[in-house]
Amino acid sequence: MSNERESGPALVQSVDRALSILEILARRRGAGVTEIGRELGVHKSTAFRLLAALEARGFVEQAQERGTYRLGLGVVRLAGAVTAQLDLSRQGHEACDRLAADLGETVNIAILDSNRAVNITQSRGAASVTSHNWVGRQTPLHATSSGKILLAHAPAPVLAAVLAEPPERFTDATVTGETELAAELDRARERGWAFTAEEYEVGLNAVAAPIRGADGAVVAALSISGPAYRLDRDAFPAVAKRVIAAAGEVSARMGWIP
């Protein structure tokens, strides 16, 4: 895996073997190079090369007894990221269900995934006119209400990268101008919510507010979406208050104290 000359089937095989090593160490709570090589069915030198690559990334570490390996802190970091996402989904479920029931529309929680927003949980209200499941779906940052919230609070490199590239136009209402988009992000930071009016899909409007973690950083966005004829622009400020309250409830559950 550390050999840059590997490609195609050989690279896939190396990745598979490296993952198998992690499973072996998780099951055995530690093992030596010879044991790992024997279980993988490879030469000791091959096992050592794979272990060295994993050790360099922090996924395995050598125990006090030289030659014995165990899982490293790199695995803990990955597990922590997954746990945080699952915890966010779990903590937000009740607030999303309540907001969806109160307003009758679809409520989602989305997180930042590179330069996209990805929805991790969804609740549907009784008046929802669509059965589309947004969970797991990646959506553009510049054309969705959740995306605008995440982008407004994104790390500087992400914000700069999105503003540097010409945004894709999805409808006639999509905001594609850098100056106009930057101004919208400023307003989103100032007032604590963002909206989209038929910018991603014709006939679909949405309002979103930030969810904060224990340290106050924005970790997700909670949004409500519905048909433009029902969730119209005049309703945005009133709906935003409800969305901000729900997002604040989830933030409190995540440990944030204003």
Describe the structure in brief:
With 258 residues, the chain is α+β, with helices and mostly antiparallel strands. It is built from eight helices and nine strands.
Question: How would you explain this protein's 3D organization?
Answer:
This protein has 258 residues and is of the alpha+beta class. The chain is built from 8 helices and 9 strands. The chain has a 6-stranded antiparallel sheet. Strands 1-3-2 form a 3-stranded antiparallel sheet. The longest helix has 31 residues, at 73-103. It starts with 8 loop residues before the first helix and ends in a 5-residue tail after the last helix. May be an activator protein for the gylABX operon. GO terms for molecular function: DNA binding; DNA-binding transcription factor activity.
> Ranges with pLDDT <50 over ≥5 residues?
none
CATH homology superfamily of the largest domain: GAF domain
> Largest sheet, order of strands side by side?
6-5-4-9-8-7
Task: Summarize model confidence as the mean pLDDT.
Answer: 85
Tally of structural domains: 2
Q: How many strands, which pairing sense, and closed or not: the largest β-sheet? A: 6 strands, antiparallel
* Strand element count: 9
CATH architecture field of the largest domain: 2-Layer Sandwich
CATH topology tier name of the largest domain: Beta-Lactamase
Radius of gyration: 23 Å
Terminal Cα span:
46 Å
Secondary-structure element pattern, one letter each: HEHHEEHEEEHHHEEEH
Q: What is the number of helical segments per DSSP (H or I, 4+ residues)?
A: 8
- Overall, the morphology is elongated
Structural class: alpha+beta
